[in-house]
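Q: What residues go here?
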């Protein structure tokens, strides 16, 4: 799975106004671009792989919304109400830090979606 957080964070930083409406526009564009790219791959991905990538995107969106003082995006919240991982057991030894996620063959890397996330610039009159 790709890590969509840095990609979305950069897209939000580029916004002239980080209002909830503009943030949600970026999120919807990201969802549409991701699903469109994943469904167009040949050979096709399984629905489980597509869903796993969408969940990864939704978790990044929820994290960004919390950081920006908003509520997690409703689309992400409805599909996955708790984006945080379960707490480790008290007697468990701490796990090593997660390695950089490996992209599955055929899956686009997150940065390939950046051109879909930027909003068109307003023309000066």
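A:
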């Amino acid at each position: 799975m790709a890590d969509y957080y840095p990609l979305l964070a950069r897209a939000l930083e580029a916004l002239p106004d980080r209002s909830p409406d503009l943030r949600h526009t970026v999120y919807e564009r990201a969802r549409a671009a991701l699903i469109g790219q994943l469904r167009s791959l040949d050979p096709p991905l399984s629905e489980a792989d597509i869903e796993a990538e969408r969940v990864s995107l939704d978790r990044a969106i929820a994290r960004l919304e919390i950081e920006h003082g908003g509520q997690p995006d409703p689309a992400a919240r409805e599909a996955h109400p708790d984006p945080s991982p379960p707490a480790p057991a008290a007697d468990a030894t701490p796990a090593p830090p997660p390695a950089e996620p490996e992209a599955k063959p055929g899956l686009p890397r997150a940065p390939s979606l950046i051109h879909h996330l930027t909003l068109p610039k307003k023309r000066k009159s």
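A: Context that may help when evaluating the design: The chain is about 50% helix and 0% strand. Residues 80-93, 95-104 have pLDDT under 50 and may be disordered.
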